[in-house]
Every structure is written in structure tokens, then in C-alpha cells.
Task: structure prediction
Amino acid sequence: MNWQEMQDEIMLFDGAMGTMLQGAGLKPGQCPELLNLENPEIIRKVHQSYIQAGANIIETNTFGANPLKLREYGLDGKTRDINRQGVRIAKEAAAGRALVAGSVGPTGLLLEPYGPATFAEVYKAYKEQIEALAKAGADLICIETMSDLNEIKAALLAAKECSSLPIVCMMSFNPQGSTMMGVSPETAAVVLSALGADVVGANCSAGASELLPVMERMGKVSDKMLIVQPNAGLPVFQAGQVSYAEDAASMAQHAENFVQAGVQILGGCCGTSPQHIQSLAAKVKHRPPVQRKKHKVLFISGRKMVLGMGEHNETVSIEGLNSFSANEGQQILQKGAQGLLIKLPAHLDLRELQQKFLAFQGVVDAPLALKAENPAALEAVLKIVRGRPLLFGLTATEDSLNKFLPLAAKYGAGIVAATIDESGVPENNGEKIALAEKIMARGKEVGINPWDIAIDALALPFKAKAALEEEKLAVYSTLKKLGVQGAISLSEEKFWPAWLPKDREKLKTYLGQNQIDLFLANLLS
Result:
């Protein structure tokens, strides 16, 4: 049994570990992960019960086994031992009948600007845990129950750096359809997919009925395999005891709806038991997954809003910001811009740059485009940006491609690249298309999809030279056939050619008719 062979069917994860351990005598305040070292037989029996119920992927008892969480129990020095033993117990219980997913949960800390934890220390903690899981023989990594986009990003980037295992990413959503930190299902799916997760989805949260719309929303913006692991309903506290309202038969009634929504992996979270998994397995195990629509769209996002370019030929408007001014950013958005472009200052040290950027995003939630001359400054911001940004200002020069394409690939950013090379701006449309093809080819080398690239083929500020009206931006029709998006950069309105509408809505209509998906204004003056 291996991961590739299983992808032609609906797969079953296991259910709750904590609920089962509490039933076996785990005391309040006791570290569940310490049982890996002190009472491994209890953990082995839980794994075996889920496999017997029909799970073909089980999770290690390592949910809270990162050093920052283990520090609460004075056990951070045992991080590697606890994780290695967690994998060993699960592999022995599976005995080839199920794959083993290394479970990675939250640190329990708030990341700045909402709390004291930095991205760097959270990343380091996850790297230590995931290295131990991978070296011990886990078949995949499961990053779960996250609410902060930057925390799950830190774990995902750490997982990609220290292993080549498939990565499952799940966030936890409230009944209103966002995480505790305000992340929408669309943003979670767009960002995690772009960062390289193999599977995206939701777990914990409430019951199955509350998570169905979350999965439907994720499926509209991501081609990745989808997973859902709902709680057995919301917890009820009575006489000091916790119970859950949704029994196995009730949860199984939702299985078909999940499958029709495109979900390929089902399981359970808090309050679920082997009986829940057995009921799910009876409904859907071994069935083929529903074929889903492919999205060849350049998606970018803030914490909540997602913008898509390329599918419906609608033009997205992004306008420039002169500084990290939240007031200025909000004013631009109120006038009708859908996103903001920020030129990262070169004079700030990287820590100060991150703090200013975090403060700005704490107030202004909008999809962003970033422009930077210094790759180190750009990478410092890409680590902590809440959403999926565009990288603006790339060209077809070797210097630009070598500096910025690898960063776009690593951090899952979209790209706006101008058809300019070392010789300058070509006048001939054929030469522009050739440079666009060069950019696409170099992007492919580092794993960037053609539809995640927007090409600015005009490549000159209009104040320097206006495109000829009779061309009608015909080059973009060819670019569309190549699979890239179209972009146009305009400087101040007084320099726009007479034939180009200045009214925002008329301009967007005109650009859309001419294959332009992305319109960036006031960036070149």
C-alpha cells in the first residue's frame, strides 16, 4: 500500500485520538503525547481499533508534540523521542494495512502582531518535530486544526524543507465560515495550494453539516485533493463531562454530500470513535472520487478576499500605495481598487520591515502585490504575508529571473512580469511574445504554472509611449493561447492615451474585451 496507489479511491482517515485516550483514563492536564513513551500499548490499541473500523490512514499521537507546546509540560527536550516513538507505534499497529500520517498541531501561541511568537521560532519548532516524524518513517505529514494562516504556513514550509513526503493541511472553521483568526475557506485553499500542500481541507470545527459549505468553497478555488474531518457535532458540557451530539449513523448521512462536493478523504475529529469511521467506510470506502473542474486561474488573496484572473475574463484592479499607510490603503480600496501594490523600502532592516508590514496587514485586509529590488527584503515579507500576493516588477532579464522566480515558487506567489530584457523593450509583438515564452519556460523550471503568471507586454509607461490604437492590444490574444494572463500597467491618468477610457468601470470593460485580466495603475510615475 502506498500513497499513489490509493488516490483512485475515496480514502478514510481515523477519528479522534484525544477522545479515545480520555476514555482509557487520560487525566485532565496530562500530556497525551507522553503516553508514547510511558504507555505505548494504549496508543497501539487506539490505532488498531481505527484500522479494524476501516481507516486506511492513521495519525500518530503527536498532535501537540512540537517543542513549543511540549514546553508547557517541561517536555520540550523530549520532542524527537516522542515523535519517533509515535511513528513507531503507529507503524507497528498498521502492519502494512494503513499508511501513517505524522500529526502536527498548533503551538498554542499567537503569532505577532497578535501575540509574542515570531514566524522564525514557530518555523524552527515545526522543523524539529517534522524532521523527527519523517526520519522515523511516517508516510505523510498531516498539519491540522490550524486557525492562523502564518502558523500553518510555517509548518508547511518546514515540512517541505525537511522531507519530500505528501503534506495534508487542514484549518479549523467556526459556524460563520472563517477561522478564529478570520481566514476564509477560499484564502486557506488558495494559499495552501500555492505553497505546495498535496491535500487541503478542514477538521475539528463543528459537525459535518457545518463543514460541508466550507469544503464546497475550497473546491471552487483549488484543484488539490480535499479532506474533511468534522467533530461529532459541538461539545456539550454536563456535570463536568464532555459529550458530543452526533452519533456514527448521523455523521455517515453526510458522507455522500461530501463526496459530491469533491472530498476524497474523510475522517473524524473530536468526539468521533471507531464506530463513526466504520459508518463512513460503509458509505464511501473504495468508491472512485468525483471528477472536479480544473482551475487554470491566477488566484491572489488577502486574509478573507480572493481575486481570480483568467477564468471569466474579468479585469482586476490593483493600485499603488506610497508607504505602509493604513489610512491611504483604505482610501484607495474605498474608491474601488480591489487590491494594493506596495513597494518595499530598501532602507529598513529586515526585522523592522516585517514589523511594519505586519502592522499594516493587521489593519488593511486586501490582496497585495509586492515590488522589491532586494530579494532578502522580499523574502522577509513573503514569509509573513497573510494571503497569496503577486510579485510585481519582474522582467525577462537573467538577473530578475534568477533572483525572483525561485522566491515566487517557494512562497507560492503569483507573478507579473514585463517583456523587457537586457536589450530593453522590444517594439515587435513577436519579440514580446518570445520574451513571454522565455518567462514561462523559466517559471516552469522552478514549478510555476503558466496561469500563475501575468504578462505586461506593453512594457512601457504610457507617459513614455502609448500603444497604437490599431493594435488593439492584439498581443494578448496570443498570450492567452499560451496559458498566461494579461496585465497592463498605467501611470498617472494625464498620460493615458486618448482612446483608453478613464472611467474605472468603462476601462475595466475595455481591458476585459482585450484579454487583459490585471490592471495596475499609478505604479510607474
